[in-house]
Structures are given as C-alpha cells and as structure tokens.
User: What shape does this take?
Amino acid sequence: MRIIEKGGSMKLKGSFALVLACVMLLSGKVFASGVEDLANLLAEKGVISYGQAQQIVTESNEQARQELLSGKSVLVPQWVQNMTFQGDLRLRAQTDWDSSNNSRLRERMRLRLGVETRPVEKMQIGFGLATGSMGVSGTSVKDAEASSTNHTFEYMNKAPIMVDYGYIQYEPLEYLTVRGGKVKSKTQIWNTSDLLWDGDYNPDGVNATLKTSVSESSKFTANAGWYTFGEGKQGNLLADAYILQPVIEFSRSDVKVKAGLAYQQFNFAGRTNAGTGIVKNYDYKVVNPSLSVDIDNAIGGLTFNIYGDFAQNIQNDMPKVNNEDAVTGYLAGIGLGHNKLDKFGTWQVKAMYRYLEQYAVPEGLGDSDAYGGKAGKGYELTATFGLTKALSFGIDYYQMTNIDGNVPKSLCQFDFVYKF
Amino acid sequence: MKLFKSLFAVLLMITCVNSVLLAKVIVEGSTTVLPVAQRAAEEIMDSNSEIEITVRGGGSGVGINSLISKKCDIATASRSIKDSELQKASSNGVAPKAYVVAMDGIAVVVNSSNQVRKLSKAQVKGIFTGKISNWSEVGGINEKIVVVSRDSSSGTFEAFNELALNKEKVRADALMQASNQAVATTVKNTKGAIGYVGIGYVKDLSDVAIDGVKAAPETVLSNKYPYSRPLFMYTNGPAKGEAKEYLDFILSADGQALVKREGFVGLK
Assistant: This one.
C-alpha cells in the first residue's frame, strides 16, 4: 500500500509525518530503534528533511532516557528500572611460610555480587552476596571468618554463599547520607590502608556521612556511626563501637591532599565475647589520624602517592606486654602507577611498612593477611597489572614478624580479578 | 513641586507594574549555543516588548544544573544531558524535556601551511592524546604537531573528547583555549597546529576530512561525518508560555535561518 501518493502536496506530507511522529513520541511504547528506522525512511523518501529526522530521533531518545532514569516508564516498576548490579570474581594462589618450616599452599576463589536499587527518590537499598567460610556454632550455621570472603578449593566442595552486606541508605539533604543495616565496608571510616579495618568487614549498625564543599578546591567530610559487635546477654549491654571522623580534602592542579582524624571507641569489656575473629576482652579508645597525598602526572603521566595511618589507644589500664605499653600502631606507604587499571599496559605498585602493637586496636580487626591480623611489623609490596578493561593480575607479598622480631612469617598471593 | 512628586510617583508605579507584568525567561548554558540563543532573544524582544529574555553562558553543565535547581527556564547544551543529571533532576522534581534546535559538526582544522587534508579517526585520536607528535607520521612534512584544544569546561571539549578521543585525556602540552574563536585564531597563526572548532568557525581555516568525510551540512545531518552532534535546549517538562514562544521561534523557518547565519546546521 502506498501511504503517500507521488506528487501529493508537501504540506500534506509534512503534516502526515508530523502527526505520525507525534503519535509515536506520545505513545511511550515505541522503541527508539523503530523511531530511528521510520524517521530515516521518511527522510530518504523526502517526506521530512534529514534535519527533522535527526530531531525526531534524538528527542525521542532523550525522552526515553528521561522516563527510564526517572522511573516513569510504565513497562516495569521503578525499583526494577533503577536496579544496578556489580561484582567480581577473584582466583587466587596463596602461599605462606614461617621460620619453623610451616608452610601452606592454597588455591582460592572469591565471588561477590552486589545489587542496588532506588525504590523512591533519595533512597537506596543494596545487598551483596559473597563466598566465605561457613561454620557450625551450636545449632546454627554462621560465618566462620568475617574477615575473609575466600573459598579454599578442597575436595571439589561447592562454595558457600552468604549475605555480605545489606543496607538502606537515605539522603535527606544534598550533603547528608545516612545508612543502616550491614553497611558496606569503607562507609564507616576513611583510612588510607587496612591497618585498622580489614576491607572484608562490613560493619553492622548505622552511620551518617556529611559532605560539603568548603571552596572550589576544598571539601569537608564527616563520618559518624554506631556499630554492634554482638548480643547483650544476661543484662549486659551490647558490645559496640562509636566512630567519629572529620576529613578535609584539598585539590590544587595535580595535587590532592586528604587528611582525617578519627576517634574510635570500642566498648567490649564485660560485654559479650561470642563469635570469632575479633578479640573483645578490653575497651579501646583509638585516636586515628590518616593522611594521603596524591600527585597526578608526577612521573611520565603516572600518579605518585604517599599515605599513612596512625593509631594510638588512649584507654587507661590496658595490659602491658613485656612490662611496656603496647597501644601504638602505624602504617606508611608509597605508590606509583596509573590512576585506573582499565586496559592492557596499565599498572600500579605499592610499598608499605606497618607496625601494630597488641593493644593498639582490637586484635583481629585489621588486615587478616598481615600477620593474621595480629600484632606484628613488616613490609607489604604489591604490583597490579591491567590486562583488559575489567581483568587485572596482581601480586601481594607480606614479609612480617612479631613485634620482638623473632617469629617471621611470609605470605604471597597471586590474583586474577575480573570485575563486572 | 507637588506636581513633580505626583508625576514621579506615577512613573515609579508604572515602572514597578511594568516590571511585574513583564514576562521573564531565563536561558542559560552552552557557550556554543550562546550566539543562537542571544540572537533569538533579541529578535523576539524586538517584536514583543512584553517579554524579557535573559541569556547567560557558563557551559552546558552550568545550564543543566541551573535547570535542575529551577534557576532558569531553558538550559542550552551542546551535549546530551547525562544520566547522573537526569537522576538528580528526578530527585528535584524536574523532568528535563529535550528540544533539538540545530546540528553542529566539530571540524578538525589545521594551519593553512599544512598539506595534510585527510586523517583517520585513529590518527586524530593519536594526535590529540599524544601518541602521534610529528606530521611526518600521518603523511605530512617533518614538523612538530601543536595541539590546540578547548578548555575542559566547554561543551565542545566534552563532545570532542567523547566523539573523537573515547574519553582519553588530551595530551598534557595541548594549548587550551577558552573559545572556538580563540582556537581558530591560534591554529591560523601557529605553524604545525591542529585544533577543532564548531563547523561555523571553519570559514577561512583549512579543515580536514575524517575517514574521507568532510564536515558539511549534508554530512552532519545524515550522520556521515563522525564528529557531529545535536545542540539542545532543555525545559522542565514540555515548554509553556514565553519559553514555548522562544523555542517555537528558534524552530521556525526564521529561527532556523538564524541558526544557519550563526554557522550551525539548520534542521529544515
């Protein structure tokens, strides 16, 4: 069927095209590719100009994006439209050995999957699933090692999957974000390293982040939160922690300086010590300054950074070790490399030294790979190479000993990580 | 004296009433779209004294943020609104409605002494990101390439960065210029220079065919020229009242003639 007779008036053709385009745009159910095909066809036939075709296609695409991103599309509920997924798969070969000729060689895997959605304006809900170690405690099955999401290959056992985090986040004001639940790691505090907090811990509690620009080149952030570490039984209070941390950030040209001062109070003494991982026999009041300096284009377009964290437990009456206070910890590091590992040929190297006394922070809270998360001192060297936009290969080497320097341990990890 | 006071009071009252009754439209955003927006405003205000149209530049991002925070009626942009901006708009109860008012081609131009008149997209990317530094590597004479770019706050920079460079960084030694005219002047006066400008600024400059296609109205409208882009005006929901009147004018035959006079590609 010929829709438009050859020789018909241009005005009629134009009106027809306009009506057709309007019907398509207003229907809200026409896919953008269909609009594009039809608009191009009309332009080729001379019904409309190529410019008008461009106008119709572009405006309908923009309208579709606007409706999709504002959750107005009628096809699926808003929370489904706003859903995003992310995750990663890490394959690791890990070997560790010590001075007593004890050694282990393990092949491990970590799989993480995160889902986030915005059910209503200014609110976000997210949860993550991850592999890990499951153990039996009484009649219940629990996470046996909260500081690790590794699954060690053994007897072709299937890897258990657990809920890694789950939170509700709300932004009542442009500069204020509040969260509650099993919140994601690093929302509780900004540190330059995992000296105090192993990155696999996703704290249970509530926190708030206030972010505001002080000037064009400086920002102020404040983190505040309360976290629980276990049940309060037989009239005892919950084992819990409070964190308060102001952070300032200055940027000038290629230089970014970020500094924070945290106060972390852990109320453990006399409260529950159930569970694994973190030792909860004492109270801790940790003063924790952190500093990082990043210099972009420092050497051949690469970024150089220097960073450090310090921890001093100011709680009175902490036990002595060898009749001396053991309440100090610090980590200092330097790094060089590309900002992102997003293609073949990109790389990052880091070198850091850490020193952590037994009662500086709750034992087991810091990096579990660094001397098992216990008191120790030594070096960590990392090198990571980008292979594709999403795939990287990294080597992480720890050479550590106890504080006295007489029980050395080494650990080396080789990782392939694919992010999706 | 009493008569003078009364007269003054009446005049003051008329001025106040007039300023209240005067319909105001605020247009803000892209420096690329600015000449079109200004000329259109002048023509409308010349023919209708009851409309006051304020046109401001600042960049596409500035205009869109202004629309999102309900500080302007029309945001002009030389790029499509970003997903993050749409989400922010939605959170603020603003529903940006796009109007394409013209097409723009970003022409790659070289100093007139340069004999290179053809480049591939890969060569353009290599030149602007620093992987190619001498004209002899792309068929020219042994001469250092001087890259001239728009500053990173401009919509033209963002569009070229996305269309030509796949969002890679412009080489560190590029001469960053604040306007299309400044790029044109620098390229014209610098041996070995290469830059990019809106198609309307090519005029007496030497432009380069990209993958065999030159920047021209027909190649821009048919999407054959790789560095072409639509120019937008965004309103909060479908345009109404004076804002609609303004947009209707730009999309009319007279408005599109104005678009062409300012060096862009008209839709009709």
Chain A touches chain B through 20 residues (CB under 8 Å). Residues 50-69 of chain A form the longest helix (20 residues). The two ends of chain A are 49 Å apart (CA to CA). The mean pLDDT of chain A is 87.
